[in-house]
Automatic annotation (TrEMBL):
<feature type="DNA-binding region" description="H-T-H motif">
    <location>
        <begin position="55"/>
        <end position="74"/>
    </location>
</feature>
<dbReference type="InterPro" id="IPR036271">
    <property type="entry name" value="Tet_transcr_reg_TetR-rel_C_sf"/>
</dbReference>
<dbReference type="InterPro" id="IPR041467">
    <property type="entry name" value="Sco4008_C"/>
</dbReference>
<dbReference type="Pfam" id="PF17926">
    <property type="entry name" value="TetR_C_21"/>
</dbReference>
<dbReference type="InterPro" id="IPR001647">
    <property type="entry name" value="HTH_TetR"/>
</dbReference>
<protein>
    <submittedName>
        <fullName>TetR family transcriptional regulator</fullName>
    </submittedName>
</protein>
<feature type="region of interest" description="Disordered">
    <location>
        <begin position="1"/>
        <end position="31"/>
    </location>
</feature>
<feature type="domain" description="HTH tetR-type">
    <location>
        <begin position="32"/>
        <end position="92"/>
    </location>
</feature>
<feature type="compositionally biased region" description="Low complexity">
    <location>
        <begin position="12"/>
        <end position="24"/>
    </location>
</feature>
<dbReference type="InterPro" id="IPR050109">
    <property type="entry name" value="HTH-type_TetR-like_transc_reg"/>
</dbReference>
<dbReference type="InterPro" id="IPR009057">
    <property type="entry name" value="Homeodomain-like_sf"/>
</dbReference>
<keyword id="KW-0238">DNA-binding</keyword>
<dbReference type="Pfam" id="PF00440">
    <property type="entry name" value="TetR_N"/>
</dbReference>
Length: 208
């Protein structure tokens, strides 16, 4: 005895009807959806476990897709990492305006880190484990331009300033326990984020 109904015989005409291949537009949408799901899953896995700790199978399982699609679309785990790096650069273009003052720019970076903490967290993993793909050297031309314009003191090294400001931006994201210990506030609370953003503005203004 079975709880499921017996399969119904297929009509003879239907059995002879060939299956239609998906239209090119449908295949494109499916590919874009699969790529998007895999990138989101990889972002989550890298942020939680680091590049070395993230397994291709776990990324595929999180995305609900076959792991072979990672090799097909990205060439493997490193390809996913590189695709996420390019995705971040595209996102960065939306708010990294060379015309805005440096204090406002740093607050924009802070907001981006607070809105999606996965990027800073996976970068911390990369630094701790030393297993992430090698990054290109940072371009300091904008900070040098800002220094010439008086936003950064002449006696300050733009490279050192970039490192310090990067730490100031990602600190609340990668050390939430330290935020709670120092401020007595939840780093995800609006109270802390508004207060810290204003303090960051003031510190950056002092660099001049």
């Amino acid at each position: 005895m079975t709880d499921s109904p017996a399969p119904r015989p297929e009509p003879a005409d239907a059995a002879r009807t060939p299956r239609r291949a998906p239209a090119p537009g449908t295949r494109k949408l499916d590919a874009e959806r699969s790529r998007r799901l895999l990138l989101e899953a990889a972002n989550d896995e890298f942020a939680a476990k680091g590049f070395a700790g993230a397994r291709v199978q776990d990324i595929a399982d999180r995305a609900g897709l076959n792991k072979q699609l990672i090799a097909y679309y990205f060439g493997g785990k490193e390809g996913l990492w590189n695709a996420l790096s390019r995705q971040w650069l595209e996102r960065e273009k939306a708010f990294n305006d060379p015309e805005v003052p440096l204090d406002e720019l740093m607050v924009r970076y802070l907001r981006a880190a607070l809105d999606d903490p996965r990027g800073p967290r996976l970068n911390v993993w990369a630094g701790l484990t030393g297993t992430a793909p090698e990054q290109e050297r940072e371009d300091l031309s904008d900070l040098r331009r800002r220094q010439s314009a008086g936003e950064i003191g002449d006696d300050l090294d733009p490279a050192a300033m970039l490192l310090l400001l990067t730490g100031a931006v990602v600190g609340p994201v990668v050390m939430p326990h330290t935020v709670r210990a120092i401020f007595g506030l939840d780093p995800e609370s609006a109270e802390f984020q508004e207060h810290y953003a204003e303090q960051l503005r003031r510190v950056v203004r002092r660099l001049a």
